[in-house]
Design the sequence.
């Protein structure tokens, strides 16, 4: 399998089964009604991908693209210690999953 296909498979696992397994351990989503762990992960990740200091309405827009109506206040309330722990675990898992031990390291640039 080529590197691109392998990375795509790993990303699918990260945004699929891995996120579903991390969520119950962190209580990030206590009741799946409108928002699932996958909709939360994609809305927050994509909502801030292009604008890391962007307002909450970036996240709200991504929820709306998924067909989920939610207000900024409701999104804000979800950023609690459970969300922090969820993101910490997801970042750690993504680093282990997506970084190959045998990838080429770029040479240091002269300063």
Sequence:
């Amino acid at each position: 399998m080529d590197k691109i296909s392998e990375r795509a498979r790993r990303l699918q696992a990260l945004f699929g089964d891995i996120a579903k397994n991390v969520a119950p351990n962190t209580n990030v989503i206590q009741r799946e009604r409108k928002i699932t762990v996958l909709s939360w992960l994609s809305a927050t990740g994509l909502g801030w991908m292009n604008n890391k200091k962007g307002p909450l309405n970036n996240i709200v827009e991504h929820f709306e693209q998924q067909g989920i109506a939610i207000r900024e206040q409701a999104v804000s309330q979800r950023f609690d210690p459970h969300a922090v722990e969820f993101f910490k675990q997801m970042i750690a898992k993504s680093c282990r999953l997506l970084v190959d031990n045998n990838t080429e390291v770029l040479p240091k640039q002269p300063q």
In short: Residues 3-98 form one domain. The radius of gyration is 16 Å. The mean pLDDT is 84. The longest helix spans residues 3-26.
